[in-house]
Amino acid sequence: MAGTDISKQPANGPSNGPAVILVEPQLGENIGMAARAMLNCGLTDLRLVRPRDGWPSDKAVAAASGADAVIDGARLFATTAEAIADLGRVYAATARERDMTKRVVTPRQAAEEMRALGGGARAGVLFGKEAKGLHNDDVALADTILTAPLNPAYASLNIAMAVLLVGYEWFAGTGDAPAETLTMPKETRPATKAELAGLFDHLETELDACGFLRVTEKRPNMVRNLRNMLGRADLTEQEVRTLRGVIACLVSGPRG
Predict the structure, then answer these.
(1) How far apart are CA 185 and CA 31, in angstroms?
(2) Is pTM beyond 0.70 here?
(3) How far is CA 196 from CA 16, 81, 221, 251, in A?
């Protein structure tokens, strides 16, 4: 899905979001796509631990598709411990079972916990390299394991997908994600109750005339059903006029 408007910035700012730590990422392209996923969700704190092909990376820049704020601000670390040293809570993203005792949460639960952190503490999420994921030693550094409830027979995600999944759950609860809205052409607007009433009356008049509502005892219920059905459609003023035109045309019949 394409859609970018640089004039719109998250109200809470990306600095409040979790850091994304990519441990031994193998391809610059994957780093770039992860950066793009981060900026989709208002996140900019990207930390790289021993990227295989070095840093900076022209391939990462190209794959980031304009997420320059993330790429330009990415920091390089020699070890995972150094990359998470300033964080108060760390999650290890993995779908593999580990032989260690740790809490396991979903991305949504993790996002709720990260937003609840107090005292200026920040959180981060570890993501492993493409081929094998995180080492057990890296998972051991985390407080909690983060696992998405996906198809257990195939729960494999690429890095960008995993970052987007976690980032979305964070962003959706920050108050920056838009509420449900209705888009419509500038030439129209939602129909008023008076316009809807005119449509109902027009339709019912013609249904009476053609005999559709001829059964007296059933008429009130049939009329309510029709009104409820059309009411659920959230018609615009233009749509009301179109429907009234359709009714008039059906009544008048073919011309010529």
Answers:
(1) 38
(2) yes
(3) 46, 64, 18, 19
Residue with tokens 């193998």: 26
At which residue do the structure tokens 């052409």 appear? Answer: 185
Question: What domain range includes position 55?
Answer: 15-172
- Contact criterion met (CB below 8 Å) for 195 and 237: yes
Pair 240, 200: CB distance under 8 Å:
no
> Which CATH number fits the domain that encloses residue 137?
3.40.1280.10
pLDDT at 184: 65
Residue with tokens 């020699």: 78
Same domain, 109 and 209: no
Could you report the per-residue pLDDT of 62-96, keeping only the tens digit for each? 999 999 999 999 999 999 999 999 998 999 998 87
**For residue 9, is it within any domain?**
no
Answer whether 127's CB lies under 8 Å from 23's CB. yes
Report the distance separating Cα 167 and Cα 159, nearest Å: 12
Do both 114 and 165 map to the same domain? yes
Does residue 186 lie within any of the structural domains? no
Same domain, 136 and 199: no
